[in-house]
Design goal:
Elements lengths: L2 E5 L3 E3 L4 E8 L8 E6 L6 E7 L4 E4 L7 E6 L4 E6 L8 E7 L18 E2 L3 E6 L1
Parallel strand pairs: 2-11
Antiparallel strand pairs: 1-3, 3-8, 4-5, 4-9, 5-6, 7-8, 9-10, 9-11
Amino acid sequence: QVQLVESGGDLVQAGGSLRLSCAASGRTFSRNPMAWFRQAPGKEREFVGGIYGSASVTDYADSVKGRFTISRDNAKNTMYLQMNSLKPEDTAVYYCAADGRSYWSTALPKTINEYNFWGQGTQVTVSS
């Protein structure tokens, strides 16, 4: 079966860094858009950033631009989220997602309904 498994979440102080991983199994997603979303308590799940296209173009929400970096290793079928200069407002459960129905996309889907594969999430907590 297809699975996405996030790891790397932790408790860190403001200004610190974390690197999250999303390991896929069951199929390869090298040709598909992939993205990170996050959900804080009582809030809607929101787009963080993603990676797509043959050139592995990335796109980010304004709230994380300049601080977060997404990359992927196709040989390992794994996507990464490097988070620097973390803020308390970054506290959330972080989810990885893949759009298994789109190939070599020219734009990155940014809505929840456009992704059909999801991980179970990993908790990131940033203390002030």
